[in-house]
Amino acid sequence: MTHRPLDEPLRPVRPHPEDAAWHRPPEPDEVDPAVLGALLHRHGWQRRGGAAGRYGRWTPPGPGGGGTSLLVPESLAFPDSEDLLGEALLALSRSGTPSAREVLVSLAVPSDEVRWWRDVPTGPAGAAPWVVEEQLRTAARQMLLAGSLATRARAGYYGARYRRTAAASLHDVLVGSASGGRRLTAFVPVDTGRPLAVRLHQALYAAREAIDYQRATGGMDAFDGAVEAGVSRELTEALIALVRGTEGARVAVEWAPAAGVPEGCASRAEAVEFSPGDLPVLREAGARYLREEPSVPVRITGTVVRMRRSGPRGEGTVRLRVIAGAEIPHVRLTLDEETYRIAGHAHLVGMPVRVQGRLESRGGFRRLVDASEVVPVQVDEVERDRLMKSLQETSEITAFFEEACGGD
Asked: Where is the stretch described as Disordered (predicted)?
């Protein structure tokens, strides 16, 4: 069994639904006209009259929008309201305007929207280098991951902790096309992702306030309190990636009209702005979080997947695949001769071991120090067979036998 290395870049967020099997607009009876009007307004459409109390006429943003318009009913109280709504949805689905696609996505999957803007130099005809768009997508993924991590625990530095489950929570996030590397929108489904959106919203404001405090007073104390709001080294790194190489950047979280505003959040929050002048503070805060995050006492249960020592006797290094006790996939630890032998015997008979120690923040919480009380853990025959099969399928098994017997 092989595992993706923890330092490998995260897989891209799920592509825009137009690239998947998503071919039809929502049905009129699935859409609240008030929600459609709110989304059109959010995405830059302009209301230009209409019969008061019955419908509004909306035109798309930009200079080319004058020839296109939608008639959107204000409610379903009139006989022709559903017909008008159906025609508006069909026109949106046929429109080539990016904002039309974004409105349809928000109708199909009620979502909170996270928006990023970067002020980057433009090339000929407003084009931007390929790398600029990749930088925006990378920074956006890092920021969503930081928000997801903060919904699981509060920490100044997570390292490998919670990363697997946090990354899995992003599978339902939809992402639009990056507009020339300058603008990107992610749609976070309300049903599964609202805690992420709320935490990211709060963390961005806390980070902004902590930066302003440091720049005004020279003190970093505000970053300590900002951890409770979700600020972490992971978030500061995402902000650095977003701002670096730009003249400035903004991030905004906008709530799904169909779901309303979450408790404790403003209905219309301004975008949070960051500038190149914030980079030294963000770097200092990230280093502070890395330096001061304490080690964590744990009792881990895991299966031995690798053993190594320099000779036939003495202490050796063991790598465990974690089953329980810590939100990390693997951990390394150094054992004395006796406990190293216990770990080797447990491995040979297909049994996990339980070990107590402290997860060390250095290296990303991937190492257990002061390991003690190493004992095999009894499992039933079915589980033992599964573990043995897993071990036999990995290419590490040959190296294990050579190293356990004292080979180089």
From this structure: 1-28
